[in-house]
């Protein structure tokens, strides 16, 4: 038992050391540093398109890199591929399991993926004459909460089994498993340089991982409940998280700590999803209270709201060219705003 | 939580190893981090359609207005 006691003591010492190092670096906060910055203009976006077609709650959506097509997933058991300019449905992919929680578009536009309570990530080829299932990635022992393609040959998954994984799409096997969370992994976001990713989990922590060696490089605490949404800031040096504790937070990677918190006493609904505008200045955060609030990322102030859904906003996404924001809801509709 | 002592020890060893790694990273001051984030936002602001507004003529999501000939 002596060794366990020693290890526990060392763990406590290290935690204290980390806190002290963070405190030493904490010479200001983001809002104070941005006090001289002109406020973001009052953002009033209008619904330009309402995409109707799903017959049940929408759980996820993801933009294609062409800034025009997008995929959405609903518990009506379908993935729909939309042309956002015309509002038309381009493809419908029937799912083996209707309990879908996530979907993703490959950067090439050739593939889409989905997964959920079936614990699997299924990859489909959109370019064959008839849409084909190309792989069923089956190794997680918990639900699939989020997935993102690195390319047509590699994909990342986050799971309720508390792990994330990098898969080889040619073999269908896991190349790397990312182990460190102690709660269900709920979301992930790839870094702009694709060398790392961040995950958010029900243990209220966000973690930064090296994609190649599987190492957890940094852990970010501060939230007091499940982290449901996470995104890299476009510079690659910070991340934004959204949680069931009703707040969003920005953590800077190089300072290794929270630099600003986005919350409002009047807001007592959990954050379900988030997306950033092109420059990172605006954060679009979807909440359980049916709204999507727009935050000034530098000043921490609410600068707008997207109201229009009749149920929880479950997913948000901004295309790579930043031309609009899409919200998806349990009301079965997707809305495009700009 | 009931772990047999061997399982508990291995888990603790992993935690300590991870904490040692995280304790060893280099950190910059928040003031420097914040300045860089601020600079990034301001330098890219003019390219950000949602911040700047999208003129209706260039908005792919808006139906084109009918042409009027004067």
From TrEMBL, chain A:
WD repeats lie at residues 51-92, 137-177, 178-219, 220-261, 306-338. InterPro entries: G-protein_beta_1-5 (IPR016346), WD40/YVTN_repeat-like_dom_sf (IPR015943), WD40_G-protein_beta-like (IPR001632), WD40_PAC1 (IPR020472), WD40_repeat_CS (IPR019775), WD40_repeat_dom_sf (IPR036322), WD40_rpt (IPR001680). Residues 1-28 form a coiled coil. Keywords: Coiled coil, Repeat, Transducer, WD repeat. GO terms for biological process: signal transduction. The keyword Repeat applies. It comes from the Eukaryota. Belongs to the WD repeat G protein beta family. This is Guanine nucleotide-binding protein G(I)/G(S)/G(T) subunit beta-3-like.
TrEMBL record, chain B:
Residues 5-70 form the G protein gamma domain. It is found in: Cell membrane. CDD domains: GGL (cd00068). Its main location: membrane. PROSITE patterns: G_PROTEIN_GAMMA (PS50058). Keywords: Cell membrane, Lipoprotein, Membrane, Methylation, Prenylation, Transducer. Gene3D superfamilies: Transducin (heterotrimeric G protein), gamma chain (4.10.260.10). One of its GO terms (cellular component) is heterotrimeric G-protein complex. It is a lipid-anchor. Coiled coil: none annotated. One of its GO terms (molecular function) is G-protein beta-subunit binding. One of its GO terms (biological process) is G protein-coupled receptor signaling pathway. The keyword Lipoprotein applies. Belongs to the G protein gamma family. G proteins are composed of 3 units; alpha, beta and gamma. Guanine nucleotide-binding proteins (G proteins) are involved as a modulator or transducer in various transmembrane signaling systems. The beta and gamma chains are required for the GTPase activity, for replacement of GDP by GTP, and for G protein-effector interaction. This is Guanine nucleotide-binding protein subunit gamma. It comes from Onychostoma macrolepis.
């Amino acid at each position: 038992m002596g060794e366990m006691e020693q290890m526990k003591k060392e763990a406590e010492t290290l935690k204290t050391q980390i806190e002290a190092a963070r405190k030493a670096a904490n010479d200001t906060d983001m809002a104070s540093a941005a006090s001289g910055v002109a406020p973001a203009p009052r953002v009033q976006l209008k619904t330009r398109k309402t995409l109707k077609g799903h017959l049940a709650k929408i759980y996820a959506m993801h933009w294609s890199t062409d800034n025009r097509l997008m995929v959405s997933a609903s518990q009506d058991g379908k993935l729909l591929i939309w042309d956002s300019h015309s509002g038309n449905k381009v493809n419908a992919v029937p799912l083996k399991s209707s309990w879908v929680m996530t979907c993703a578009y490959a950067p090439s536009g050739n593939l889409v993926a989905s997964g959920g309570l079936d614990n699997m990530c299924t990859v489909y080829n959109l370019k064959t004459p008839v849409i084909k299932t190309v792989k069923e990635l089956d190794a997680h022992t918990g639900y699939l909460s989020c997935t993102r393609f690195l390319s047509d040959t590699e994909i990342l998954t986050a799971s309720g089994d508390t792990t994330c994984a990098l898969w080889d799409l040619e073999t269908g096997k896991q190349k790397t498993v990312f182990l460190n969370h102690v709660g269900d992994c709920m979301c992930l976001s790839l870094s702009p340089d694709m060398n790392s990713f961040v995950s958010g989990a029900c243990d209220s922590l966000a973690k930064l991982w090296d994609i190649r060696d599987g190492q957890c490089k940094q852990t970010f605490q501060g939230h007091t409940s499940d982290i449901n949404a996470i995104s890299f800031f476009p510079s690659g040096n910070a991340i934004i998280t959204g949680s069931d504790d009703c707040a969003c937070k920005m953590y800077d990677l190089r300072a290794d700590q929270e630099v600003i918190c986005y919350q409002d006493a009047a807001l007592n609904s959990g954050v379900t999803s988030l997306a950033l505008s092109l420059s990172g200045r605006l954060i679009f955060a979807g909440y359980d209270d049916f709204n999507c609030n727009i935050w000034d990322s530098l000043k921490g102030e609410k600068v707008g709201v997207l109201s229009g859904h009749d149920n929880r906003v479950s997913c948000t996404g901004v295309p790579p060219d930043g031309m609009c924001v899409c919200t998806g809801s349990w009301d079965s509709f997707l809305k495009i705003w700009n | 939580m009931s772990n047999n002592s061997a399982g508990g020890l291995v888990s603790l060893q992993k935690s300590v190893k991870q904490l040692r790694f995280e304790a060893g990273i280099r950190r910059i001051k928040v003031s420097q981090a914040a300045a860089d984030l601020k600079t990034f936002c301001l330098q890219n602001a003019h390219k950000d359609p949602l911040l700047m507004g999208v003129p209706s003529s260039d908005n792919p999501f808006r139906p084109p207005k009918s042409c009027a000939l004067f």
